[in-house]
Backbone:
């Protein structure tokens, strides 16, 4: 199987699952890597399928191909969806769960909370599991006004006032633009819509990076945040682990992801009983290994996607990531609670140790040695070990 290679290059590649050569003709750097990653997953899956050619599809999750609003309503919760315009013309999809099931009280009196997803993910990850295991549903049932953000470029935020996703200009942005445009747009929209003065901010990985940049560089925005909850608090990429991330970040000059169509193929493939565990292991190759992930959430996530190409230019190399990481993070005074994982390959413990001394106002930090990068929203024990603490801290503030 061929690794990513320059645009326009033709190579004879060996396909291990089909024992034959094929000619690789990439259409673009982004398409090339998306196809390569897809072939890795499908190649492993096919080997198991070949071992049991009569394997039948089973345990198909009905939420695999639902959008976020449909997932919320499927579980019996009220759902609202809004388009939020950024100052640079991007149109972001923001989902809202105004209250819990059967609780129709005045949502205007409820404290709003904004949850922002990580890189390669989207807002649906917070409602993928059953209501007693999904942070979005738990917060709604506890009396909070839940808002779920989708940053520019993910599956649900691919609109712009003047640009199309087919234009290179649409993807000409970095994490910096997400922080200085997307985060303020979502925060200000929510506060204006609810009439509240402040909200709680919960970020996962990239969602934390955006918060660190936004709240350290825009004091007027930081004043609108009650508490900042940083889950898998990504800040730098000095110690990234795992074969997939190292290949993507160090082997190429761009960060690209598998698109919606490819993820749909993976979802159907991974619904095969024998292949499901292989697909789960594909996730471990990115975020670190454990056996704590809730397969309901994982399978629901595979059906939706994040075509977050962010840019096809060299500015998203590792060096560029270091440049756009917030340099004056000490200026952020927002009270911050953090949860990190010992098996997290995206944000391993040395990264967290680099970050902690730079945060001025830490009110809580807990490290789970057995957690990987995805336990924060798909972990079976996340409600008991972390979500309860989040609710307690919010209640106190």
Residues:
């Amino acid at each position: 199987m061929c690794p990513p290679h320059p645009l326009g290059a033709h190579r004879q590649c060996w396909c291990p699952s089909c024992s034959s050569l094929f000619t690789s003709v990439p259409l673009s750097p982004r398409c090339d890597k998306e196809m390569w990653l897809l072939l890795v997953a499908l190649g492993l899956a096919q080997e198991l399928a070949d071992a049991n050619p009569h394997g039948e599809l089973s345990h198909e999750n009905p939420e695999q191909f639902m959008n976020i609003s449909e997932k919320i309503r499927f579980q019996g919760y009220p759902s609202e969806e809004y388009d939020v315009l950024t100052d640079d013309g991007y149109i972001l999809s923001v989902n809202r769960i105004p209250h819990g099931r059967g609780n129709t009280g005045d949502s205007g009196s409820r404290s709003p909370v904004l949850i922002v997803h990580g890189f390669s993910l989207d807002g649906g990850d917070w409602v993928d599991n059953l209501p007693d295991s999904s942070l979005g549903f738990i917060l709604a049932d506890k009396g909070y006004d839940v808002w779920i953000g989708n940053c520019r470029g993910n599956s649900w935020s691919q609109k712009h006032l003047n640009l199309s996703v087919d234009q290179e200009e649409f993807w000409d942005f970095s994490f910096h633009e997400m922080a200085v445009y997307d985060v303020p747009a979502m925060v200000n929209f929510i506060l204006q819509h609810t009439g509240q003065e402040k909200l709680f901010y919960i970020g996962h990985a990239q969602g934390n990076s955006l918060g660190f940049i936004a709240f350290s560089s825009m004091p007027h925005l930081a004043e609108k945040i009650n508490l900042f909850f940083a889950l898998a608090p990504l800040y730098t990429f000095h110690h990234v682990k795992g074969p997939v991330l190292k290949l993507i970040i160090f082997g190429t000059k761009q960060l690209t992801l598998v698109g919606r169509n490819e993820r749909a193929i993976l979802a159907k493939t991974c619904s095969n009983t024998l292949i499901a565990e292989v697909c789960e292991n594909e996730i471990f190759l990115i975020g670190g290994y454990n056996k704590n992930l809730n397969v309901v959430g994982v399978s629901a996530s595979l059906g939706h996607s994040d075509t977050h190409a962010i840019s096809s230019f060299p500015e998203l190399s590792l060096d560029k990531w270091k440049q756009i990481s917030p340099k004056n993070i000490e200026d952020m005074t927002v009270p911050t609670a953090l949860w990190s994982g010992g098996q997290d390959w995206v944000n391993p413990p040395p990264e967290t140790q680099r970050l902690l001394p730079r945060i001025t106002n830490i009110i809580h930090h807990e490290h789970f040695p057995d957690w990987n990068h995805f336990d924060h929203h798909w972990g079976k024990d996340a409600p008991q070990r972390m979500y309860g603490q989040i609710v307690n801290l919010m209640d106190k503030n």
